[in-house]
Amino acid sequence: MKKSLLEILRCPVSRSQLELIDAKMNGDSVEEGWLVSREGARYAITRGIPRFVPADNYATGFGLQWNHFRRTQLDSFSGHSITHDRFYRFTGFTPQELRGKRVLDVGCGAGRFAEIALAAGAHVVALDYSSAVDACGTNHADKPQLDVVQGDVYALPFEFASFDFVYCLGVLQHTPNVHAAFAALPAMLKPGAKLAIDLYPKLLRNALWPKYWLRPITRRMDAGKLFSLVERMVPVLLPISLAVGRLPVVGQQLRKFLPVVNYEGVLPLSPSQVKEWAVLDTFDMLAPAYDNPQNVETVREWFNAAGLVNVLVKRMGFVIGRGEAKAQS
């Protein structure tokens, strides 16, 4: 963490400023130390990351997932522009407007979207509830314009109105209370700043998908045991899914009834990448403690109730939402 991050860090409970003590520095970066509030709350900084939440929490499975697949979805590793394309298509941001701006990445995981914002020249604060922050920090250790924070979306440890852009992609549906998680984001926006989110869509046909039959069991399993099970399942189920998916007319729909993620024909992945992404995203669909899709109308109500302007909410595969904080008059 850069020492300059102290300017916007706040105690998530009292909202008071934090004092840095017992710091071990590496240049202008804090490697280890403590953040202490006026009220006496203490938060550790370990491996350069402030930690505002307990190590074990409902996102533990995501930490396992993203530390194992630390580089899988990074465009710089995959050789494709999958993350770049999704980021700009869903957020509506442009590289030009991100350059030099302070950006908050909520639910950063291993830092796939942070990589895109950093490449545009943004100063990124990447936050996650899980130990995925360690993967993000490792992936982008050479990026001086990045700070990584382990914190809770319901109690964001930042001064209000500190960011020019805030995005939260692929995350909100995995929180216990999706509306409350969303409602924490607009307060982070400076006047005129932009917010973008995406969520799984709430559809009648969701009831037909195998993940919703299996999740009542799998989400209660130990994350390590479930991951081992998925690693054994994918080599069996993926070839079947590939064969079914190649059937004319109906194949693409029929393969959705198999409990394995298959990106053949969907993403420009090599056969080995299709298999690796299958393990990653099959675990991702079965492991989360929460999976709460939303519809367009509900999300639009949230944006409007938050007082955001220039609101756009629509289906683009996902439900995407964009809005802006009112500019100062």
Structure write-up:
The structure is a single chain. This protein is α/β, with parallel strands linked by helices and 329 residues long. 34% of the residues lie in helices and 22% in strands. The chain has twelve helices and eleven strands. The chain has helices at 60-68, 75-78, 82-91, 95-98, 112-119, 132-139, 178-183, 210-218, 223-245, 251-254, 271-286, 296-305, and strands at 18-26, 29-37, 42-46, 49-50, 102-106, 123-128, 146-150, 163-169, 189-199, 309-316, 318-324. It has a seven-stranded mixed beta sheet, sandwiched between helices. Helix 7 links the parallel strand 8 (163-169) and strand 9 (189-199). The model has no long low-confidence stretch (mean pLDDT 96).
Secondary-structure blueprint of this entry?
Elements (H helix, E strand, L loop, with lengths): L17 E9 L2 E9 L4 E5 L2 E2 L9 H9 L6 H4 L3 H10 L3 H4 L3 E5 L5 H8 L3 E6 L3 H8 L6 E5 L12 E7 L8 H6 L5 E11 L10 H9 L4 H23 L5 H4 L16 H16 L9 H10 L3 E8 L1 E7 L5
Parallel strand pairs: 5-6, 5-8, 6-7, 8-9
Antiparallel strand pairs: 1-2, 2-3, 3-4, 9-11, 10-11
Overall structural class, as computed from helix and strand content, comes to alpha/beta
Q: What letter string, H or E per element, gives the SSE order?
A: EEEEHHHHEHEHEEHEHHHHHEE
Main pleated sheet: 7 strands, mixed
Helix content: 25-40%
The backbone outline, from C-alpha atoms, is globular
- The number of E-state strands comes to 11
